[in-house]
Amino acid sequence: MTSKGSKRVAPASIIAMTLSLLCMPGARAEDKAVDLNYIKEHYPAAYEQIFKEGMEAAKKLQAQPQAQTLAQEKPAEAKTPPAAAEATPKKNDLGDWWNKSSLSYDPRPSEWLNRGEFKYSFMGYTGNASSHANLIYARWDTRKGRYTNSLAFTLDNSNTDINSMNYHYKKDQRMFEDTLKYDITENFYGDVGFIWEKNSALLVDRRYAVYGGLGYRLLTLDDHKLSALLAYGYLNERYASDIQTWLGFMNRNFDTLYLNQTYDWKINEYITFNEKLMWIHSFNKVDRLQLDASGNLFNDGTHYRNLMTVDVGLNAMITDNISFFGAYQIKYDNIPWAWLKKRDTMLSTGLKMTFQ
């Protein structure tokens, strides 16, 4: 007779033997059926346990290929690339880059940047020429890396009649400027430039100046930008042939101190205020000629020469690229020809177009 302990062990042994039999690769289907029927008839408890474990094993085996299939069909998740440095800003996101240091951008744009400006204005002169005329102004700014170059051209060939000391001539004013900046730091920059000018109203057939120096951006706010350049320069003037006839010389040269200061104030989204001061001070003195009560020339001594130009203006945007502007300019020469005035003024209004 079998003991109670052996009865407890028998079902477990039978389960193990049966599972091993069922899992054998060479086991025949009829052997598996006979064994299962025999166990079911004589050992119902063991059969129930075998049945449960077999069902669980079948479920696991069935689940594995499905999981593998899903894993194969599931697209790989896009991996987020590591956060690299900030993307290079687009040109449209740089704002008024021509008024800012290239080092104020991080990262600094590596591509070429270009901007054009064109102005047409109707103006009125007072001073040595009292008239109305048309003025054309064009400017082109280019930047690559830390270098920024600006070209500007001003033209007024209105051929206005000028009568001075019973001498009649036509007004013809032109100016060409080229300046190249290099950003040393975010605020300091080096600047070299060239200015060529013709002004028949002042009997200047050609005036050119070259300069080089250091500038500093005093204010770099979004709404306020203030900068100043102090440079050493050389000034050469060649005069109309009549000066040779009247005074006995044709040209003069000066070593100069050159100051160029600009200020831009963005009043609101549509209106800006602009101011510019250019001052040229000579290190060598020249004779200052005057006219006495009888109209005769006399020498008033030697003096340092100072040339100054002040511009102020308002700009109102009509579209992103077109705006209306008004400007007022003062030109001052402390040693003009004896029969000319020291100050000329110009009031102008017109349209400005920009593109970049």
Strand order of the largest sheet: 1-2-3-6-7-8-9-10-11-12-13-14
Tally of discrete structural domains: 2
Classified by CATH, the class of the largest domain is Mainly Beta
- What is the CATH architecture term of the largest domain? Beta Barrel
> Which percent range fits the helix content?
10-25%
User: Biggest β-sheet: count, sense, barrel?
Assistant: 12 strands, antiparallel, barrel
Which assembly state applies to the chains in this document? single chain
CATH topology-level fold name of the largest domain: Porin
Shape: rod-shaped
Note down, in words, how this protein is organized.
The chain has 356 residues and is α+β, with helices and mostly antiparallel strands. Helices cover 20% and strands 52% of the residues. The chain is built from four helices and 14 strands. The strands form two sheets. It has a twelve-stranded antiparallel beta barrel. Strands 4-5 form a two-stranded antiparallel ribbon. Helix 2 crosses helix 3. The longest helix is centred in the N-terminal third of the chain and has 30 residues, at 44-73. The termini are far apart.
What's the topology here?
Layout: H1 4-23, H2 29-42, H3 44-73, E1 113-126, E2 131-144, E3 147-156, E4 161-164, E5 167-170, E6 173-183, E7 188-199, E8 204-220, E9 224-239, H4 241-247, E10 251-266, E11 271-291, E12 297-317, E13 322-333, E14 343-355
Antiparallel strand pairs: 1-2, 1-14, 2-3, 3-6, 4-5, 6-7, 7-8, 8-9, 9-10, 10-11, 11-12, 12-13, 13-14
Helix pairs in contact: 1-2, 1-3, 2-3
